[in-house]
Amino acid sequence: MPDHYHWSGGREAILRFGPAHGPVVMAILPLFEEANRTRAFAVTILRDLAARGIAGALPDLPGQGESLLPTEQTDLAKLRAGVAAAAASLDRPVFSFAIRSGALLDGEAVLAGRYHLSPMAGADLRRELVRARQAAAREAGEAFDPASLDHASEPVELAGNRIAPALLAALTDAVPSTQAVRTVRLDSDARPADAKLAGSPLWRRAEPDNDPDFAARIADDIAQWIATCAS
């Protein structure tokens, strides 16, 4: 069901799924292009949870998705404020489900728990954006000096997005919250996690895609985790 929430900078859309009572799982998509690649996957998970009697929500964040705020005008503080406001608007116990760089955004929200799928540090996201810009520059035969980003005063284009220097600077030291977190990674990922599941790294695909079997495994794990948190 389409709905909306308000934050200090305006109004944003939020999709709601499942029952109007009980806890709600709020999905937080990764930043920039990875959001497009994983949106259908996140919606499938929320629908699977709804079928299990657990409500879900998927907010647009300031400067992301269908937000009226231009991407180049958002920063980490606004994104985190959006997540916090979206969670508060639900007026129920909220659990976050954050994918990749979405795990950088739920630290200021009042949450019953945080579920992070393949979380990444802000510095890693910044490196990926820079590598994508370097590859595009080589292909176009253009010069690009990554050091120029440290002195930029205007939005810079990286991986098809115009990004504010303040956001780039904040990513350098940004890390996911460690409070009440369940960390889940792909079974092919050697990094530590509370659980590892078989699935596809959809955020790496060239085009948006889905993996219903992986979504079902995630929904099962989230449902079991919420039940454990409530006991």
Order of helices and strands: EEEHEHEEHEEHEEH
Low-confidence stretches are none
User: Quick one: how many beta strands?
Assistant: 10
Instruction: Measure the end-to-end span.
Output: 29 Å
Task: Report the structural category.
Answer: alpha/beta
Please give the share of residues in helix.
25-40%
Coarse shape: globular
Q: What Rg, in angstroms, do the CA atoms define?
A: 17 Å
How much of the sequence lies in strands comes to: 15-25%
Q: Number of helical segments?
A: 5
Describe this structure in words.
This protein has helices at residues 33-51, 76-89, 122-140, 165-171, 212-230; strands spanning 2-7, 10-17, 24-28, 55-59, 94-99, 113-117, 156-158, 161-163, 181-186, 195-197. It has 231 residues and is α/β, with parallel strands linked by helices. Strands 1-2-4-3-5-6-9-10 form an eight-stranded mixed sheet, sandwiched between helices. Strand 3 (24-28), helix 1 (33-51) and strand 4 (55-59) form a beta-alpha-beta unit. The longest helix has 19 residues, at 33-51. The radius of gyration is 17 Å and the shape is globular.
